[in-house]
Amino acid sequence: xxxxxxxxxxxxxxxxxxxxxxxxxxxxxxxxxxxxxxxxxxxxxxxxxxxxxxxxxxxxxxxxxxxxxxxxxxxxxxxxxxxxxxxxxxxxxxxxxxxxxxxxxxxxxxxxxxxxxxxxxxxxxxxxxxxxxxxxxxxxxxxxxxxxxxxxxxxxxxxxxxxxxxxxxxxxxxxxxxxxxxxxxxxxxxxxxxxxxxxxxxxxxxxxxxxxxxxxxxxxxxxxxxxxxxxxxxxxxxxxxxxxxxxxxxxxxxxxxxxxxxxxxxxxxxxxxxxxxxxxxxxxxxxxxxxxxxxxxxxxxxxxxxxxxxxxxxxxxxxxxxxxxxxxxxxxxxxxxxxxxxxxxxxxxxxxxxxxxxxxxxxxxxxxxxxxxxxxxxxxxxxxxxxxxxxxxxxxxxxxxxxxxxxxxxxxx
Length: 413
Hints:
Helix 1 packs antiparallel against helix 2 and helix 2 runs antiparallel to helix 9. The protein is globular and about 70 Å long. The chain is an alpha/beta fold. The chain has 2 domains: 100 residues, no CATH class; 261 residues, Alpha/Beta hydrolase fold, catalytic domain (Rossmann fold). The protein contains 13 helices and 14 strands. Helix 5 links the parallel strand 6 and strand 7.
């Protein structure tokens, strides 16, 4: 019922959105004398903000068509190398003969699309052969494709690592730190030939009992049934995934916005003022951020609820009690893959110590294969995006990967 109401709301907003779009075009048209007046700029800015607030945002594009390698501009082509019902594996193929370390970025399935990691990919491209998991919106997946839960997520990671072959370096950002760790533990126990050469975990909830945040506390304080009854709804017709139970993207977005509502209001006020004063460049940067931020996807109910149960309420991974499809996830099985844990000092989603816990529970891994970095004055998103990521964290990751790569070759562009 909630999802149906949301769809009706979007339909009801359509005439208003059309009016806002036309009004913005009229008052911003340079051939219109009114557009050069304070009143015209005020009207244009008002319609612009209204259109943004009522729009339904689709899946963004990565838009990464080139990178710089040794001072030369190198063409980059996006390729889909593996398609599965709930996600695909994307390769950013560089038109170069460089043989750099192969990196699999595992994007979070936590509401946003993989394009949220555009800055992560962009910074890695000059020195790495980059792949990324590109998860699908559950709203668009027919019921005939079956279900998808946290255990299936683990299997997807193992399968994609097999597709890529030996000597792959895996990088998990936020939510996937848990299933990626589980996949590594399973492969290590089997002595799988495609076990990653290194694993980097960034801002992930390995053990949410360490420095619990507001998000962790919410999951801990409410019973499992509360989430099942209050945030799970059914996809309505005419969506391809109709009748599928999901945790809808619009509810996730509401939760994201509520956490820092004051900051979001301030940013929109600033954007409005920039538009009125004619500072389009600054306004466009804020607009671009929110176009990405508001682009959300649905998660399957079974994946979301199992994550709440296993990760946030019962802490089965750090306690060594997670049984995935009959297989016990054994942290002590990891004994050869180097692990780098990265946390942000100001992370308000995954508190300090939660990601570092991966090093503590890997009791069979030699100390020299464990590394940790706490990024000072960096929040959750700053770990994988922005200046601190590019200038501080990414170089550390690059050095770590090369240190543990089994076959680093000299680049020959």
